[in-house]
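Backbone-to-sequence.
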């Protein structure tokens, strides 16, 4: 462990550049990340074969049509508005067919079924949904009726969009709270920032591998992935929460021992090497356990479980062995004394938190340094007395 830390701290710039380039390469597929709810049947099952037959015979859009509901004051107005909407929607690009309007018994509601020319989990269908809703506003103003677009496909697209919009806010909230807590624990500014940047590299690499395997189909055969498609929409949020917790756990394990060595007067590079030697085995064992556990999920039959297991296993592997055990020692050695810098006003505001019983260790060291009391000598008494 110390030899590895010595090697990474000897040429820190080279280590940082190589690791950043490698993780950046793994993160490139994230630019093509596509979210969806999926949930289709197994292609090898009877339901999957039937769906494939329908897609080949009638088009992939028949598996997930869009439903347009017109609501108005009376049958005539509502039917006319629905027919106008149908005529306008069928001329939109990406629409395969539009069913004739079907009125309810009361006549106040009229239903239209729109069949896209693309599958329910494609970006083309999401574009069709957006164009239908854009055209809806003009029809509502002209006819005075209300048009709603629904159906399983529309709901899945809306959920994916909502989760995609909430993901950056969720990441900022989680990382902001973690930065605050790490600043209090380590009483430094650079250490929490370095931990957060390292997590972003790990997250990008794990999502990139997920996109390459489940969307692009790389290694799909050996991993038993029968059909490629969008990434499950709530998987990135789960990945951020679980992976960030594990990453910060490994960070505290490593850096807390480095801080202990530094506070005892060791030079920055020596403190990094000694602290790494004391804590690297714990991080290695913990990471290997999690990799084996998450890797076992890849053997499951469900696509959702496969994706979750692969993303978490790759994320822990990258974060533990590349980021925490390679990038962190190099960055700490490169920062030197600046790694533990904290502004004076923060020193007065932030509480002094005891990390892993550090104050008890100091008290024990001070007690050992005190002079030991000399025992009192007791005079020996004779065994017999003269009477």
């Amino acid at each position: 462990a110390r030899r590895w830390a010595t090697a990474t701290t000897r040429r820190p710039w080279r280590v940082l550049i190589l690791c950043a380039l490698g993780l950046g390469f793994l993160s490139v597929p994230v630019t093509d990340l596509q979210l969806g709810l999926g949930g289709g049947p197994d292609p090898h099952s009877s339901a999957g074969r039937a769906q494939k037959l329908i897609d080949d015979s009638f088009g992939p859009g028949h598996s997930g049509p869009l439903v347009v509901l017109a609501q108005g004051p009376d049958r005539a107005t509502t039917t006319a508005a629905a027919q106008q909407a149908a005529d306008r929607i069928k001329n939109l690009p990406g629409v395969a067919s539009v069913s004739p309007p079907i009125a309810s018994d009361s006549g106040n509601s009229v239903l239209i079924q729109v069949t896209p020319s693309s599958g329910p989990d494609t970006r083309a269908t999401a574009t069709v949904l957006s164009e239908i809703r854009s055209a809806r506003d003009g029809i509502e103003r002209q006819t005075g009726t209300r048009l709603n677009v629904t159906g399983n496909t529309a709901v899945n697209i809306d959920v994916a969009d909502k989760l995609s919009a909430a993901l950056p806010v969720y990441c900022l909230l989680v990382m902001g709270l973690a930065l605050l807590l790490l600043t209090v624990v380590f009483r430094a500014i650079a250490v929490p920032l370095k931990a957060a940047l390292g997590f972003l590299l790990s997250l990008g690499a794990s999502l990139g591998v997920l996109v390459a395997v489940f969307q692009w189909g790389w290694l799909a055969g050996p991993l038993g992935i029968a059909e490629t498609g969008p990434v499950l929409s709530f998987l990135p949020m789960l990945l951020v929460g679980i992976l960030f917790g594990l990453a910060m756990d490994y960070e505290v394990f490593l850096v807390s021992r480095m801080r202990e060595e530094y506070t005892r007067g060791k030079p920055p590079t020596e403190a990094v090497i000694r602290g790494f030697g004391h804590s690297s085995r714990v991080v290695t064992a913990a990471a290997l356990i999690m990799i084996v556990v998450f890797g076992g999920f890849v053997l499951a039959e469900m696509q959702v479980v496969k994706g979750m297991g692969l993303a978490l296993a790759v994320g822990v592997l990258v974060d533990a062995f590349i980021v925490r055990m390679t990038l962190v020692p190099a960055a700490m050695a490169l920062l030197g004394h600046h790694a533990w810098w904290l502004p004076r006003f923060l020193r007065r505001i932030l509480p002094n938190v005891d990390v892993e019983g550090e104050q008890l260790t100091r008290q024990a060291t001070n007690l050992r340094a005190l002079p030991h009391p000399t025992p009192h000598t007791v005079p020996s008494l004779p065994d017999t007395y003269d009477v």
